[in-house]
Specification:
This protein is of the alpha+beta class and about 100 residues long. The protein is built from four helices and two strands. A hairpin with a 2-residue loop joins strand 1 and strand 2. The radius of gyration is 15 Å and the shape is globular. The chain starts with a helix and ends with a helix.
C-alpha cells in the first residue's frame, strides 16, 4: 500500500462520535482480534484530545519504553505509525539504503 493510500485512509477513517465507551469498544475488538491472529500479547493505548483515555496490557505484556516512544512520535507528527514507517522507507530508498 502506498503512503498516499494510507494518508487517504487516515483522513477517511474518522469517528463521527468518540468517547471513553468508544475507546473501550475499540480495545475489546483489538484484543479479540489479537487473541485469534497474533501469537504475542500486545499493549494498547488510546488517546483523545492528547489525553490517554485507555491503557491496556494483555496478560504477559509488560509496559515498555518503546510504547511510550511510539506514542510520542505519533503525537508529535500527527500521523499514524503506518504513514511514518512508509516515509522512513521512502527516505531510505532515496538515499540508496533501503
Amino acid at each position: 500500500m502506498t503512503i498516499e493510500r494510507v494518508m487517504q485512509q487516515e483522513e477517511q477513517l474518522q469517528f463521527e462520535v468518540f468517547n471513553h465507551e468508544t475507546a473501550l469498544d475499540i480495545t475489546n475488538e483489538i484484543v479479540e482480534y489479537v487473541k485469534q491472529h497474533y501469537p504475542k500479547p500486545v499493549g494498547i493505548q488510546i488517546f483523545y484530545n492528547e489525553k490517554m483515555v485507555l491503557h491496556y496490557l494483555m496478560d504477559g505484556r509488560k509496559n515498555s519504553p518503546w510504547l511510550e516512544r511510539k506514542t510520542r512520535t505519533v503525537m508529535e507528527s500527527g500521523h499514524s505509525m503506518g504513514i511514518l514507517q512508509k516515509r522512513i522507507r521512502r527516505t531510505l530508498q532515496a538515499l540508496g539504503k533501503g
